[in-house]
Specification:
six-stranded antiparallel β-sheet
């Protein structure tokens, strides 16, 4: 209902407010480490997503420290019935099977859905090329494992 819409936009308001925030030297440092990861220098895409949700008053279930793991975040959302494969909505979490072009290295990637239009999903992602930036992908992209809707 309406409450879902309102809280979804607050997730987006918080995410948009962070666009352009970047690492100091490209080593998971600077403002992102301090703000999203409690000073830890680690890949911070999932730290960004859980931080945005906390700021917006929506908790992603699970231990906040462990939510730095994309796999843990997806597992928790699955466990709490928040995960779905299709039909992303603004404010949803988008899960990727791998990092793709976002960052070097193995591991997974995660972001926030901003909008869906013309068969594409538009996102705001942390740790994409060492910063918070907008990206977009075809909806049928195999690299997308699914979406999570926090309550």
């Amino acid at each position: 209902g309406l409450s879902g819409k309102r809280s979804g936009s607050s997730v987006l308001d918080v995410a948009r407010s962070q666009l352009g925030v970047r690492e100091r030297t490209g080593r998971n440092d600077g403002v992102p480490a301090q703000r999203y990861a409690n000073g830890r220098r680690e890949p911070w895409c999932a730290d960004f997503v859980s931080w945005v949700h906390r700021q917006a008053g929506k908790q992603i279930p699970g231990n906040q420290r462990s939510l730095a793991s994309v796999q843990h975040m997806e597992d928790q959302m699955k466990k709490h019935g928040m995960f779905h494969k299709n039909n992303p909505k603004p404010g949803d979490v988008i899960f990727f099977k791998n990092r793709g072009g976002s960052d070097r290295g193995s591991g997974r990637h995660v972001g926030i859905v901003e909008r869906v239009a013309n068969g594409r999903v538009y996102t705001i992602e942390g740790n994409s090329g060492n910063m918070v930036r907008r990206r977009s992908y075809p909806l049928g992209l195999r690299r997308i494992s699914g979406y999570g809707t926090a309550r």
